[in-house]
Dehydrogenase (Haloquadratum walsbyi J07HQW1), 317 residues
Amino acid sequence: MTSTPEQLAGVADVDCTGMQALVTGSTSGIGRATAIALGRLGADVIVHGRDASAGADVVDTVTAYGADAQFIAADFADVEAVRELAATVRSTTDGIDLLYNNAGGVFRDGQLTSCDVEYTFHINHLAPYLLTTELLDYLNTDARVVTTASAAHQGASLDIDRTRSVDNHSAFWAYNHSKLANILFTTELAQRLDISDHTATAVCVHPGAIPGSGFTRFLPGPLPRIVQSLEVLPGVTSVNDGAAELLFAGISSQTTDYSGKYLAGQQLKEPSSDARDDAAARRLWQESANILDITEPLNNLPDNKKTRPGVDINVTE
Ligand SMILES: NC(=O)c1ccc[n+]([C@@H]2O[C@H](COP(=O)([O-])OP(=O)(O)OC[C@H]3O[C@@H](n4cnc5c(N)ncnc54)[C@H](OP(=O)(O)O)[C@@H]3O)[C@@H](O)[C@H]2O)c1
């Protein structure tokens, strides 16, 4: 019998009753499996994506377990839609305990968004940055922000200028760069939360290589079929395994001290040196605010900020 994500994460006995979870990108793939698992564990779940019928299906599945669920549609390419998503969360809940920044993907065609940045950077980084900052004062005590990054960040260096153009667009460069941004965002968010005495924490996760999700649908030509056929290869994991990574990061008692860290294989991992670059993390945070034309969130940092939040724990490469 197939194991559930909560069994795979060792959190099947965690009672999430009374928790409010927002899982972006939960109409499909690992977000969908995470939302359903959280509902099974008793959490009330906000399902997000663009596909209303897929969203309704997830809501029905969660409510069948006795938890509350609602679907909120928001296209992450649309800044106002992200703000409306945050506003709806505020008007329909008492606060958020778990924010999963999971929506995203690899996008074949190069195009600029209304913010004059490349689409992948906007969907995978800028939209979750905006959503998180819109909900900062709505995160409950000890809330956790979990962002789905990727091992694909390896080899990428922060280059915000390159995201302002789609000349010589490379879908894979754009994806890898956006996943680097997810890690830099997480470390900077964790540090700023800590310095602001906010009790919320932030972690990011590589969920595994999961061709069985909807991840490959935007790839060109025969690539989706080819990648999906890799599902039987060693090193490749299932949608439930990927959701288990997200659950472990979000609700396991083992990860409460991991703020600012990067997890993979349900353990701490050292991300690339570019992903550990404090100056790049700070630059990304500030530039993201500039691009969105908002005041820099959590901007009470001392100029000489040096410390990282969280504890010193053995980390594997
Ligand atoms: N699969 C892998 O091997 C793998 C590896 C490392 C990291 N990841 C990361 O895991 C996360 C989830 O991916 P997945 O593998 O589960 O793929 P998936 O099945 O394609 O799920 C992607 C989710 O993101 C949502 N989404 C995509 N574009 C959106 C947009 N413009 N606005 C709002 N929502 C949007 C989709 O919802 P709608 O279609 O309803 O809009 C869907 O729910 C992504 O961040 C991905 O980068 C995946």
User: Anything to note?
Assistant: The two ends are 33 Å apart (CA to CA).
